[in-house]
Automatic annotation (TrEMBL):
Matches recorded under PANTHER family: BETA-ALANYL-DOPAMINE_CARCININE HYDROLASE (PTHR34180:SF1), PEPTIDASE C45 (PTHR34180)
Domain of life (superkingdom): Archaea
Designated name of the protein: Peptidase C45 hydrolase domain-containing protein
Domain Peptidase C45 hydrolase: 132-332
A Pfam family recorded for this sequence: AAT
Length: 378
């Protein structure tokens, strides 16, 4: 589809937010509209969700003043209401309770509505022992509502009081989703849903945690933001370090399951591998059951580990694997299912391969089979 626009953000949190908001004003407004329409389509009470987001303004201000200041800057720079900007930043934390409320209402109108979208994704990490160049890779295909692809960009944070960061984000969202910092810490994220999601009202939002991961200088401090406090909903977070460490955290509201690489390769999609929680996504999006396993196999075939005779994974092999079309359109390289109404269209919106040693992202917007990867170094 396209290259990422890269926006360098400097100065105070408020100044960074204003810069972000001014540059992507239309995209921020478009994202608010996309989510409102999509959630309304699912029978969610969008006004109640917005009220919940309004209450989160104060919560984020108290818990993470810098994050809140950057959100305020985005609102100021874009002219989009602060509550709507906050709704983007806490969308996971407000949508799960809203879905829960809808389900519990059990009215016929609600049950006739569409199911919530599966926040798809297939992510990976590869350790130096399995790569030809001795580097550590982290990355993913990020699958989500198709219109969001147009609002993605790479934010580059240049800060005196915290690490420099290069991360992909949606216009309006402060915390990056997939990225790397100057200390070689990298992150990839996937949607996960457990039966316990959305039961508790106010806990630190995931996007705030993702920013904190990339604010870390040390690996233990990068893991801490996901682990240290309970969560409103679930998410899968893969955190890697340039010196050859990878840990996958399957986070449910009150439990985190950890997964380590096998033969130097780690992959994850959108279902829990632990039996300790009720995993929900595979009921609506069964492709999660083969996407991660298939990606793992495609990468492992490149190593000596399975006797295939090749000598390791390189970034070209990873890019090939991310273009895999088995099960299309519900493939690793995910495409729009034309049998669905347009409002339900989803696809791979971004594909990223991060070389943690070089602090370099190879990436593109849209399904990766459609174009070339471009290089963005921190
Ligand atoms: Zn494709």
């Amino acid at each position: 589809m396209a290259e990422f626009e890269r926006l360098v953000l400097t100065g105070t949190p408020r100044e960074r937010g204003i810069e972000h908001g001014e540059r992507f004003a239309e995209a921020v407004a478009a994202n608010v509209e996309t989510y409102r329409e999509r959630f309304a389509h699912e029978g969610v009470d969008v006004d109640a969700m917005r009220e919940h987001a309004a209450e989160y303004v104060e919560y984020v201000e108290r818990e993470s003043p810098d994050y809140a200041a950057e959100m305020r800057g985005i609102a100021e720079g874009s002219g989009v209401d602060l509550v709507d900007v906050t709704m983007l930043n806490v969308r996971w934390e407000v949508i799960y309770p809203a879905w829960k409320a809808r389900t519990e209402a059990e009215n016929e109108a609600a049950t006739a509505e569409a199911e919530p979208p599966v926040d798809g994704c297939t992510s990976f990490g590869v350790m130096p022992c399995a790569t030809t160049d001795g580097t550590t890779y982290v990355g993913q295909n990020w699958d989500w509502l198709a219109p969001i692809a147009d609002t993605l960009f790479l934010m580059e944070l240049r800060r005196d009081d915290a690490p420099d960061v290069l991360a992909m984000t949606e216009a309006g969202i402060v915390g990056g989703k997939v990225g790397v910092n100057e200390h070689g810490i990298g992150i990839a994220v996937n949607g996960l849903i457990s039966g316990d999601d959305g039961s508790e009202g106010f806990r630190k939002p995931y996007h705030v945690r993702f920013r904190e991961v990339l604010d870390a200088e040390r690996y233990d401090d990068a893991l801490r933001p996901i682990l240290e406090t309970d969560r409103v909903c679930s998410a899968n977070v893969l955190v890697g370090h340039a010196d050859g460490e990878l840990i996958d955290l399957e986070a449910a509201p009150e439990l985190v399951n950890t997964i380590y690489p096998e033969e130097g390769v780690l992959t994850h999609s959108n279902h829990f591998e632990t039996d300790a929680v009720e995993s929900v996504n595979e009921r609506r999006g069964p492709s999660t059951l083969y996407r991660a396993e298939r990606l793992r196999r495609l990468l492992a075939e490149e190593t000596d580990g399975d006797g295939a005779g090749a000598d390791g994974v390189d970034s070209a092999a990873i890019r090939d694997a991310l273009r895999d079309h088995f099960g299309r359109p519900a493939s690793i390289c995910s495409h729009v299912d034309e049998s669905l109404p347009e409002i339900e269209h989803g696809q791979t919106n971004a594909s990223l391969v991060i070389d943690l040693q070089e602090r370099r992202i190879l990436g593109q917007r849209g399904p990766p089979c459609a174009g070339e990867y471009h290089e963005y170094a921190l």
